[in-house]
Amino acid sequence: MVNATDPDQGTGGSVLFSFQPPSPFFSIDGARGTVTVTKPLDYETTSAYQLTVNATDQDKARPLSRLANLAITITDVQDMDPIFTNLPYSTNIEEDVPLGHVVRKITAIDQDLGRPRGIGYTIIA
Fold it and tell me: Which among 34, 36, 72 is positioned nearest to 52, based on CA atoms?
């Protein structure tokens, strides 16, 4: 929510909000200043938005306005599956390899950007 006050009396003290220019991803309630999301956000596409809010008083004779910057930072969430590299996996080993012998190195990468996360591996028999 954004907030602005105007000390004028009557309609001149009433403030309406808008984005300049309008945003395709966010809208602002003109009377309350409440900012809402209007389209899906994706951190991997855009991690931050810089919006300009226009506050205009409702004086009929001479309306006044002021601009303010609104910075919105998007936080990455786990929404991308890991990807295995070097597929397909197929390995031949001899039956008498010693215990602890490395059979194959399996590698996957996390497609999510932002804060690095570990990838866990499970063998499903």
Answer: 72
Question: What's the whole-model pTM score?
Answer: 0.68
How many CA atoms are closer than 13 Å to the CA of 81, on its beta-carbon side? 3
CA 91 to chain centre: 41
List Cβ neighbours of 36 (8 Å cut-off, separation of 6 or more): 26, 27, 28, 29
Q: Model confidence at 116, in pLDDT bands (50, 70, 90)?
A: low
User: Class assignment of domain 10-73?
Assistant: mainly beta
For residues 33 and 84, the answer to whether their CB atoms sit within 8 Å is: no
Nearest-angstrom CA–CA distance, 125 and 119: 19
